[in-house]
Amino acid sequence: MDERTRLRLDVSYDGTDFSGWAAQPARRTVAGMLVETLDLVLGAGTATGLTVAGRTDAGVHATGQVCHLDLPAEVWRQHEGRLLRRLARLLPPDVRVRAMAEVPADFDARFSATFRRYEYRVTDAPWGAEPLRRTDTLAWPRPLDVAALNDAAAGLVGEHDFAAYCRRKENATTLREVTRLDWRRDPDGILVATVQADAFCQNMVRSLVGAMLVAGDGRRPVEWPAGLLTRRERSSEVTVAPAHGLALVEVGYPADPAEYARRAVLTRRLRVPVAEG
């Protein structure tokens, strides 16, 4: 069997015109575009095993996405010094591979991750979002109180069953540990929510944001979002915030590469069923 090299790719994209990360027939997706371009550069099927840290939904952006793939070692030696620039020339402008590096064979972009961090941008300006930021900033029609948003966020931090905020998958746990959840108002007036957890289930971040926003504008008490954690089914009262305000900004991994395999085993056991794609 040919010797293979595992590569880590750091990827950014504007999700506006993508139907999410995962390849889908007849749909423009980030994974589909990467595979198509790699096949063009290296030959069809040369790059294998493309695996992503977080499969973002349609319209969601990323500045810190991570994925891995495997190449024949000889192919990597031939292309190592020029592959990044060749991809830059051939990929469309709404997706960039910013870095590419060899990693140990037991590095798994998905299961070796220790956290994912997202940001969600909202403006409550009466005129709405600035035209140049309209594709990554939600325009909220009511004034928002940062203190109320942070009070609502505080009750959601920690390890909880987030069933009320997730689209449930068969045999998949909705238990997650949120290690950071807070809001800030930047000097330009934009409100930014930072949400970090070991992992997220589908629609979880946008559902959390949707619940906090109605507390932040006074329509719900600040205790309401945390009160939903007693539910064991998806809550119909929670409105999922639009995709375009959300961006994956960082994925964390163990500092010691020797820990990649152990972390992957732990993640598979505690969080995600092996059958999930």
Description:
It contains seven helices and ten strands. It has 277 residues and is an alpha+beta fold. Strands 1, 2, 3, 4, 5, 6, 7, 8, 9 and 10 form a ten-stranded mixed sheet that branches.
Entry keywords:
10 strands; 10-stranded mixed sheet; globular; single chain; 277 residues; alpha+beta
Task: Output the structural class.
Answer: alpha+beta
What are the segments in which pLDDT stays under 50 over at least 5 consecutive residues? 272-277
- The total of helices stands at 7
Overall 3D geometry? globular
Alpha-carbon distance between the termini?
26 Å
Provide mean pLDDT, rounded: 93
The ordered H/E elements are EHEEHHEEEHEEEHHEH
Question: Please, what is the oligomeric state?
Answer: single chain
Question: From the alpha-carbon coordinates, what is the Rg to the nearest angstrom?
Answer: 20 Å
TL;DR?
With 277 residues, this protein is of the alpha+beta class. It has helices at residues 30-42, 73-79, 83-90, 146-154, 204-216, 224-227, 260-270; strands spanning 4-13, 48-52, 61-72, 95-103, 115-123, 138-139, 158-161, 175-185, 191-197, 246-252.
